[in-house]
């Protein structure tokens, strides 16, 4: 059986163009952090290092579970790239104010299925380092995150137009007696940025919330 997040986790990865509340459980990620304009090489190089490791983890798991029983997971689809975004000081408290991209701080990540342990991650990391040496691999970490209660929306189009979708999310909070927790936000890129024209990008925007006191 192949596990495909597109089919099995629609509540998290198939939102429409309106804001909705979701409960995000604990999730495992491989991740790497950086700073600056995401249009620069430093960002794409970090993404490339992440994907090299993610596919190594996937292929090693598939090889180990070839011929598994029908009810067992033989392989899985690689999860989409995600990014958590912030600004480098309190002056940019609203993380979706993007006028000065050089001040952006980010952590990009790729989720891993529950069956991937830290041991499996380390074995795959060692293999990638031998086959495709890259100093950025040393910056990748394996962590578990739990977002809990969140509001999310599907944004279609240019990244620079995201404030329009954030406005919809903010209105939704007011209408539903919710308030935002912190000023970071998460983006989940449902299409490959390197192969998709900017106006056709589909990005889930998400931030943590709580009930208004």
Automatic annotation (TrEMBL):
<feature type="domain" description="GyrI-like small molecule binding">
    <location>
        <begin position="21"/>
        <end position="207"/>
    </location>
</feature>
<dbReference type="InterPro" id="IPR029442">
    <property type="entry name" value="GyrI-like"/>
</dbReference>
<dbReference type="InterPro" id="IPR011256">
    <property type="entry name" value="Reg_factor_effector_dom_sf"/>
</dbReference>
<protein>
    <submittedName>
        <fullName>Small molecule-binding protein</fullName>
    </submittedName>
</protein>
<dbReference type="Pfam" id="PF06445">
    <property type="entry name" value="GyrI-like"/>
</dbReference>
<dbReference type="InterPro" id="IPR008319">
    <property type="entry name" value="GyrI-like_CCH_Lin2189-like"/>
</dbReference>
């Amino acid at each position: 059986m192949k596990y495909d997040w597109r089919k099995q986790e629609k509540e998290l990865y198939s939102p429409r163009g309106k804001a909705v509340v979701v409960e995000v459980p604990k999730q495992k990620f491989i991740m790497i952090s950086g700073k600056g304009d995401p249009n620069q090489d430093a960002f794409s190089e970090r993404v490339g290092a992440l994907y090299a490791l993610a596919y190594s983890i996937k292929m090693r798991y598939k090889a180990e579970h070839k011929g598994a029983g029908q009810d067992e997971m033989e392989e899985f689809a690689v999860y989409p790239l995600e990014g958590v975004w912030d600004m480098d000081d309190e002056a940019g408290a609203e993380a979706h104010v993007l006028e000065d991209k050089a001040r952006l701080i980010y952590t990009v990540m790729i989720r891993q299925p529950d069956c991937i342990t830290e041991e499996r991650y380390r074995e795959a990391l060692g293999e990638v380092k031998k086959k495709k040496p890259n100093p950025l691999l040393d910056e990748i970490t394996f962590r578990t995150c739990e977002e809990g209660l969140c509001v999310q929306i599907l944004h279609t189009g240019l990244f620079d137009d995201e404030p329009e979708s954030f406005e919809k999310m903010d209105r939704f909070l007011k209408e539903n007696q919710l308030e935002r927790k912190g000023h970071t936000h998460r983006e989940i890129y449902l299409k490959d940025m390197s192969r998709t024209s900017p106006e056709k990008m589909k990005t889930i925007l998400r931030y943590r919330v709580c009930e208004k006191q």
